[in-house]
Amino acid sequence: MLIKDVVCPFCGCLCDDLDVEVENGRIIRVDNACTLGSKTMVGDDRLKGPIRRDGKGWVETTYDAAIEEAAQILLDADRPLLYGWSSTHGEAQSIGVHLAELLGGVVDNTSTVCHGPSILAIQEVGHPGCTLGQVKNRADLIIYWGCNPIDAHPRHMSRYTTYATGFFVRDAHRGRKVIVVDTRRNETADVATEFVQIEPGGDYAVLSALRAIVRGRGDVVPPSVSGVPKEQLVRIAEMCKNAKFGAIFFGLGLTMTAGKNKNVRNAIELTDELNRHTKFIISPMRGHWNVYGTNEVFTWITGYPYAVDFSRGIAFYNPGETTAVDILRRGECDACLVVASDPAAHFPKACVEHLARIPVIQIDPHPNATTHICRLQIPGSVAGIDAAGTAYRMDGVPIRMKAVIETGVPNDTEILQKLYNRVREGTRE
Amino acid sequence: MKVIMNTGRTIPQGESVERKHSPEYESAASVCFIHPVDMMVLGIEDGAHIRLSGPDSRVVLTARASEMVEQGSVFVPLGSYSNHVVSGETHCTGMPDFKSTMVEIIPTEDPVLSVAELMESLGGVRYAH
Amino acid sequence: MTELLIRNACVFDPLNGIRGDVMDIAIRDGRIVESVKNDADVIDASGFLTLPGGIDSHSHVCGTKVNFGRYMSPEDMRAGRTARRGKMHVTSGYYVPTTYGNSYRYSTMGYTTVLEGAMAPLEARHTHEEFNATPHQDMLANTLFDGNWSIMEAVHAHDVKRAAAIVAWTLSSVRGFAIKLTNPGGTEAWGWGEDLTGIRDPVPNFNVTPAEIITTMISANELLHLPHSVHLHCNNLGKPGNYATTLETFGLVPDLNKNRQTLYATHVQFHAYGGSTWRDICSKADEITKSVNAKPQIVMDMGQIMFGRTMTMTADGPMEFNLYCLHHNKWSNHDVELETGSGIIPVLYSKKSLVNCVMWAIGLELALLTKNPYQCLLATDNPNGAPFVKYPEIIGLLMSKRYRDEECSTLNNGFEQRTSISSLDREMNWNEIAIITRAGQAKALGLAAQGKGHLAPGAEADLAIYPIRCDDVDPATEYRKVVEGFQKTRFTIKRGRVVARDGDVIVEGANATFWVNPTVPDEHNVANDPDFVKKFEEYYTVRMSNYPVQDVYLPRGRCIKTEADI
Asked: Does the distance separating the beta carbons of C333 and A396 come in below 8 Å?
């Protein structure tokens, strides 16, 4: 059976044009997806049921027993951390936030090690952006700064930018220029009109130099800025000012290098400046298919997009203090619920060591690095494969994930709702 | 040799990211891309093992030559291996120095650990899927 | 079956001609009935002012741009936070509260129905998710069409039926309630960083004018028999001299509907400026109200500003960018492909600013100079003019000349020459206040027929009992009591259930979302038109089959079906 217009649960592109062939309750073929999406949907390898650690080994357990054990762990904790959320649907994220509220714990999502700094920058200077279709239909200049879409968002260029045909850009090849800015000549640079190579840590200075040039103060810019010759900077600034519609997409090259949120702030302010000359937008390349969803859900419930601490009875937000990496590094939490993410793989060693010391419950269908660290893992169904639910694309557009097969595995919303109800009973006891 | 370690996503890492116990993931995530000239200075061939040492931890990776990497820096896909040497310090931003950790590289004969072995070394209990 | 009897309520129910009668109200299963049995629960209203539940006809509380406003403003989140308590979740935010914050605060003030001011169809799912998290008010969504490509094509082809068919498909797909136009045509121009300067300016590339968009959509609206009229945020918002655009726009509006207005002009304060620069800006509320007083086909809302910090957020992208250039505050922008735009920026309305004082006066003038209170409703374009928690103060100002004079004496000296506020003696009475905060909205939105905004048997049992004894309070002098009284109900009742009492929300909510489903004949259904489908799939970045909002997002949807005249 062929199911069309399926939504891919991998990266922030949230492509919704997949054609999925299903036979005997299994996905046997996926068309239109990139390799990352295809591999996610076909040959999906999961835990068969909940597992718990028993001494030095592992045993199987039931969903009800696992949920009961998880509830007890959370109820016993003084400062539980509820982390992850980006690879599950919004309905589950919502329960997660309320669970943290009930427990007086901390809830954080994967933005914390991804685009958290972008959020910090937006909180300082705002976000002049748009939906991806605006870029597809209008943009004649695309800038990829500190990101590598060919590897991390493979269909970004064909669906939304470089190769996409738009209403006002009928000939993508001739109609668009692409500038790639990075510290190394990555794969995306090979298809760019112009490549700008920056010394590691040099993004902030280059952005400042561009801002000066755009404002007509090129005189203050030295002959070379972080390895970039001034002539190239002047040329780039001209391309920007002469564009009819420019779009900057940026990634971890800005958020993770020295300066972090200040790099992003500078890029946003450059965009603001360019808006005085022409139309310009800037947008982050969000990694997970529903990480923006966690920001949206967290925000409309608590007011803050990540790193929310309920221990005072209010929603409290202080990145650096209430962020997961810092809480773990300081050894501050005494239990952790991990949902739809893999901190043992993506957090620094010091954090993983602390996770190994405390009781960790993981709700995730796949055995991963965190599996070896946790006490209990409960597999739920996968949104986009055997669970439906809401996701938010990297530009904020909300799309509903489809369940293309039925496996009878409970979804994250059901598991978390049961956990929530059990914890609620427990807080009354 | 002291270098800056840059980490990030790659296609092979991304394709296998939901199967972290698989040989594909382990080989995709435990690779270290080094400029050919730097490899010559280190005296190693493509596929040799190297030890990366960070502030208070070390990990063994497989070296791969790549001209896309600048001299004086290396690229390791994001994951358990690279994060083994990234510090938990975030400078109050919540974000560790994933793309700007200074590491020391030396050739080694030691084996590359599996993800499960790495986790065990941190206090975990291996789950065999 | 649950029965409730409210005794000794001093009722103002303008739609049923009740003005201050002390009476009992009987409620069964969420509706007003003639009488109930002796064992019904009883609430003694003690002679307090009892009104139908408040209805806000234009408020930005749910959706993409509102959430943008929240997460870019942690300083505001801290300012308005409350702890978890009883049934109430934590809340954050003062001028852009979280969804529970909005819901609890509206409920405390006696509001039970809110029309979200702007929803982009592509992002409707987000609005509906937030509706479900605003659990104590029934919600409705103004659906944006101002920059809609297929609409502009239909307008260009002078094809009203086509426009109506597109509206019908879109509203039913995304579960919208009404047609919203924000700076029509201007939001498309903003896709290129441009704006329009008048209603006869052609939209670049589409070659239609705002005037044409407005008149076509008005006709389409009436062909579809929608409960509400076209809801318009005029072109040139905020620009000195823009009153001329507003009057020109009003001049376009025919009288097509005998039950309600043909055009709802929103936050008209922002569109009532004379002069030509910030230096000589003055109030033209007199001209605007002269026009509206002669045109029963137009209803407006005040768009009152109140002094203090707040956040501006509208689909009017270019206007928000201009504010950024003026104030250099943090600015966000979010254009939505093929549909509309938006911009967000915090502002401070200051008593020291002559311009802000003139703006403050204009909103009040509009209300006081409009003869028929049904034609000028109370709103602040929340939060653009002020957060809705300021409504009680506005009520106080409208009921008391003394209060207005005392406020005027604290403002910038020069402003009185620019407005007529000091010369206006009118003081609104309780009946008029009831009209401009609920009865008028119910009529304008076409919700009276749904049982909202009035208390006759059959109506929904949404009520607000305010701690004000009308005979004991002289609103002209005791305005403090008026303000405090409207800030916190003794009881807010929704569908026959007490949801709030003396400032506390005491139950978990289960609100409904009202939406319209205008049915058109199959041959006009754009979903069957290959050209429409082809363009959709080519230019949008979501698939047409993934665009409509699924049933699951409206657990308690209330669909209003209409039959189109095409």
From this structure: no
